[in-house]
Amino acid sequence: MLLGAFSGLGFAASDNLDQAQVEQGKELANTYCARCHAVGTDDSSTHPHSPPFRIISKMYPIENLEEAFAEGIYTGHPDMPAFEFSVEKLTALLEYMRSIQQ
User: Fold this and answer.
1) Cβ of 65: how many Cβ atoms within 10 Å?
2) How far apart are the first and last CA of the chain?
3) Rounded to 5 degrees, what are φ and ψ at 83?
4) Nearest CA to 100 among 5, 26, 8, 34?
5) Domain 17-99 adopts which CATH fold?
6) Long-range contact set of residues 71-74: C-beta below 8 Å, sequence gap at least 24
7) Cα angle at 63 between 66 and 80, to 5 degrees?
8) What is the pTM of this model?
9) Which tops the pLDDT comparison, 49 or 15?
10) Do residues 6 and 66 lie in contact, with contact meaning Cβ atoms separated by under 8 Å?
11) Closest of 65, 87, 83, 86 to residue 1, by C-alpha
């Protein structure tokens, strides 16, 4: 994964999440990620190599995912398609991921 260059996006603390971004991020997660990942608070991932979004921060600091998403994810499991997100969509997706961490 690529890490680091987008660390200046400046995400809010979890108690100060932007709810509009959270909702947009939830829509993006459902559209692009839910085929394999559990994107909710209590669902199960359908792909054995796709971690649930709610625990992903235990594996990777969410801040470290910024560049990987921004540059286009092309690592992960072999079935994972490549994605490229605008900064706005990236911010929303990561804000949503932050909102559901356990």
Assistant:
1) 21
2) 23
3) -130, 150
4) 26
5) Cytochrome Bc1 Complex; Chain D, domain 2 (1.10.760)
6) 71/2, 73/1
7) 50
8) 0.76
9) 49
10) yes
11) 65
Angle formed by the axes of helices 87-99 and 19-32, nearest 10°: 100
Which ranges in 1-102 belong to alpha helices (H)?
19-32, 56-59, 66-71, 87-99
Binned at pLDDT 50, 70 and 90, residue 12 comes out as very low
**Tokens linked to 32:** 């692009």
Q: pLDDT > 70: what percent of the chain?
A: 76
Backbone φ and ψ of 32, nearest 5°: -100, -20
Tokens read off for 75: 């690592």
Burial of residue 66, with CB atoms counted within 10 A of its CB: 0-12 exposed, 13-18 middle, 19 or more buried: buried
